[in-house]
Amino acid sequence: MKKIGFIGVGIMGKSMIRNLMKAGFEAAVYNRTKEKALDVVQEGAVWCDSVAECAAGRDAVISIVGYPKDVEEVYFGEKGIIANADKGTYIIDMTTTSPKLAVRIAQEGEQAGLHPLDAPVTGGDTGAKAGTLTILVGGKKEDFDACKTVFEAMGKNIDYEGPAGCGQHTKMCNQIAIAGALAGACEAMAYAKNVGLDVRTMLNSISTGAAGSAQMSNVASRVLDEDFNPGFFLKHFIKDMSIAQDEAQDVDTKLAVLDDVLAMCRELEEQGMGDLGTQALIKHYKW
To answer: Is 171 annotated as catalytic?
Structure first.
């Protein structure tokens, strides 16, 4: 496997493309906004003018776009990946999207003679840059095995989760857990500030103990430097939590913490903060 088509040159995708090229893969790229891809093109990626062009003639096609509607646009129809990828191509959606949509892609992809995998990631922009992403893969086990070297170029913890849709279901579990951990870190910081503690000292003290988490050390703590830049957009976290909420309702599972955090984040988005990082949740607590 040598030739990779990559659709979605955003915060995550750009670093993932660079790591694929470092590992020796030939990368062809497409993005709705060409300007965002110019730097990786200058570094050796080949620009394509359409999804169809990016999908044709590749050993594998990877997508990481924004929302489920974007995934649908990329995969289906006459101009989509499924209609234009060569038979035998591995098609890998690394967007966090609906498990139901992942199953649909798998069904239609297999009918077209393709090898579909859903492979959402976690680890944020820092993990994408370092090539240390956790990659959660659903689909056929033999297809997962065939793509292992592709995944190893972008991540460290690479797990086969089960049939189509199971990668997305596992990512929902990840986002559910993050909601609680991020809110907990923000609440600890708000409490510390309001009782007069030095918040940085407090975080340094408790982050190495039982309360420690990546959300505390790597995300919420950015607030102390007034850094609200998105390692992961608040609006995309809202999208993920909304999918998790819908999937939980389908199996009659109440997620009280997720419901509360989602409501907080939606309020912040209504106030114009959707393009900030998820650490903007602290603003719910009048920080």
So the answer is: yes
